[in-house]
């Protein structure tokens, strides 16, 4: 006797195992035989939702309009380290809105990749959410699964078991007499999508008054960060920790804000607190390792990156960082093999350019200037806007006596990355040697603006002022 499994039970099994497409297909067959099966409708709705679900706490990409037409941003935080166009050090971990930093001009905004997998700029954050959220329904050959224009929203808002699946926030909030925290959070998310941040703040605050939920703290903190109020967001996270001690997401949010404010030591302390609660937290391990590397502790950084390797992280960024740590820790036998693996795993021209630049940096360290020259040229072949490669090529060209070529490379590097002091300082030295004192003084001033504590720049400016006073 053949034993058959109930189709709805099988669909639930697929759903629990995250085989969402198989679950939706079985529900579709059930609904063809019985279009009014509410259980199948509800399960298919959940499956389709999970297939295109966006974790709004984590994903927060700003479009060109939000970046360039933002009138609420007042101060620009100075960065001393360099690695991206905004001057932030590269940690190897992609976080929300930190893939490439905020571009300073519209030209940079158009050129800047807005996601981790594509260089296509997003013109509007809401547009991206809409495209992702409706993809599976719009491509259904039989038309959309749920025709929103034919729904009686007032009717469904009074059915709590169905209303959550259909996103009827406004009517449901009113039906609940404005006492349901869940619907207030949904309203706040809608206001946030529309750019009405103050209205979103009111909804999230009201939701917290009814029920203390971790996600509500995270959503409200996003609002304050978009309003350029990081201190308020920090206080909110700490308030959340009072109710949820040791919550990893809240600790991570505090660490991210400290890092964006260039308070690296405090960020590292909070990342260590994250590891005390979750010792497999990839972001915390990567960021602590990056901090050790930038504080001249490559041996300790190497331990953190090897831990990531043991955990199964296998990508270009990790092997690139491993190669750098091995080189500075004088473990030369592993350096080139790590970079070779990074090149094999690279998925974009920008990654290839960064790896070749680092190999060139290693070649400079072992005094193989011919290899270094070739590596920097390869970096520019993959990414023609690589400012660091232009700067280093200029130094190598100057060693060969090609003054004009060196000057052109330095000017290009200075225009591509104004936050870097090295191109300005090198250009100032070069101009001073060829007798162009005015250009030397101008470049030295720009170098001082980028790095006020640079002693060599201060000494050069002092010499130039003495010379001008003598004239």
Taking the alpha carbons of the first and last residues, their distance comes to: 108 Å
Which stretches are poorly predicted, pLDDT < 50 over at least 5 residues?
71-93, 96-102, 109-139, 161-168
**Overall 3D shape:** elongated
* Strand portion: under 5%
Second CATH tier, the architecture of the domain at 385-470: Alpha Horseshoe
- According to CATH, the fold-level topology of the domain at 385-470 is Serine Threonine Protein Phosphatase 5, Tetratricopeptide repeat
Order of helices and strands: HHHHHHHHHHHHHHHHHHHHHHHHHHH
Report Rg: 27 Å
CATH class descriptor name of the domain at 385-470:
Mainly Alpha
Task: Give a quick summary of the entry.
It contains 27 helices and no strands. With 471 residues, the protein is mainly alpha-helical.
Explain what this protein looks like in three dimensions:
- With 471 residues, the chain is an all-alpha fold.
- The protein has helices at 7-16, 20-33, 38-51, 64-68, 106-111, 125-133, 135-138, 153-157, 160-166, 169-175, 181-193, 197-210, 214-226, 230-243, 248-260, 264-277, 282-294, 298-310, 316-328, 332-345, 349-365, 369-382, 387-399, 403-416, 422-433, 437-450, 455-470.
Q: Could you give the topology of this structure?
A:
Layout: H1 7-16, H2 20-33, H3 38-51, H4 64-68, H5 106-111, H6 125-133, H7 135-138, H8 153-157, H9 160-166, H10 169-175, H11 181-193, H12 197-210, H13 214-226, H14 230-243, H15 248-260, H16 264-277, H17 282-294, H18 298-310, H19 316-328, H20 332-345, H21 349-365, H22 369-382, H23 387-399, H24 403-416, H25 422-433, H26 437-450, H27 455-470
Helix pairs in contact: 1-2, 1-3, 2-3, 10-11, 11-12, 12-13, 13-14, 14-15, 15-16, 16-17, 17-18, 18-19, 19-20, 19-21, 20-21, 21-22, 22-23, 23-24, 24-25, 25-26, 26-27
């Amino acid at each position: 006797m053949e034993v058959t499994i109930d189709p709805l039970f099988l669909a639930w099994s697929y759903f629990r195992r995250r085989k969402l497409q198989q679950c939706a297909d079985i529900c579709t067959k059930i609904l063809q035989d019985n279009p009014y099966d509410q259980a199948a409708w509800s399960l298919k709705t959940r499956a389709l939702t999970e297939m295109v679900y966006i974790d709004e706490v984590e994903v927060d990409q700003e479009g060109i309009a939000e970046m360039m037409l933002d009138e609420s941003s007042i101060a620009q935080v100075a960065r001393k380290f360099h690695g991206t166009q905004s001057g932030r050090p590269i940690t190897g971990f992609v976080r929300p809105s930190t893939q490439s930093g905020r571009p300073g001009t519209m030209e940079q905004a158009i050129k800047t990749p807005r996601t981790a997998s594509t260089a296509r700029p997003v013109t509007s954050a809401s547009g991206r959410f809409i495209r992702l959220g409706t993809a599976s329904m719009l491509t259904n050959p039989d038309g959309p699964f749920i025709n929103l224009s034919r729904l009686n929203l007032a009717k469904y808002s009074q059915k709590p078991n169905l209303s959550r699946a259909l996103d009827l926030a406004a009517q449901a909030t009113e039906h609940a007499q404005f006492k349901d925290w869940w619907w207030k959070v949904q309203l706040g998310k809608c206001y946030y999508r529309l750019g009405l941040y103050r209205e979103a703040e009111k909804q999230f605050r009201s939701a917290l008054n009814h029920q203390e939920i971790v996600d509500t703290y995270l959503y409200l903190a996003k609002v304050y960060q978009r309003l350029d109020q990081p201190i308020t967001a920090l206080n909110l996270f700490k308030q959340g920790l009072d109710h949820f001690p040791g919550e990893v997401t809240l600790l991570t949010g505090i660490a991210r804000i400290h890092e964006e404010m260039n308070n690296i030591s405090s960020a590292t302390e909070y990342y260590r607190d994250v590891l005390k609660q979750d010792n497999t937290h990839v972001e915390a391990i990567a960021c602590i390792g990056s901090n050790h590397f930038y504080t001249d502790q490559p041996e300790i950084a190497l331990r953190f990156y090897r831990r990531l390797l043991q955990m199964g992280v296998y990508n270009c960024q990790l092997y690139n960082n491993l190669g750098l740590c091995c080189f500075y820790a004088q473990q030369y036998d592993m350096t080139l093999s790590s970079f070779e693996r990074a090149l094999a795993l690279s998925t974009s021209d920008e990654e290839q350019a960064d790896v070749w630049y680092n190999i060139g940096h290693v070649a400079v360290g072992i005094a193989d200037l011919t290899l270094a020259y070739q590596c920097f040229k390869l970096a520019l072949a993959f990414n023609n806007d690589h400012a660091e490669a232009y700067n280093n090529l200029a130094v190598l060209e100057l060693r060969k006596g090609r003054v004009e070529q060196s000057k052109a490379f330095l000017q290009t590097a200075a225009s591509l990355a104004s936050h870097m002091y090295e191109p300005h300082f090198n250009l100032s030295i070069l101009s001073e040697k060829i007798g162009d004192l005015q250009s030397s003084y101008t470049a030295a001033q720009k170098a001082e603006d980028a790095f006020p504590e640079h002693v060599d720049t201060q000494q050069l400016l002092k010499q130039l002022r003495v010379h001008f006073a003598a004239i």
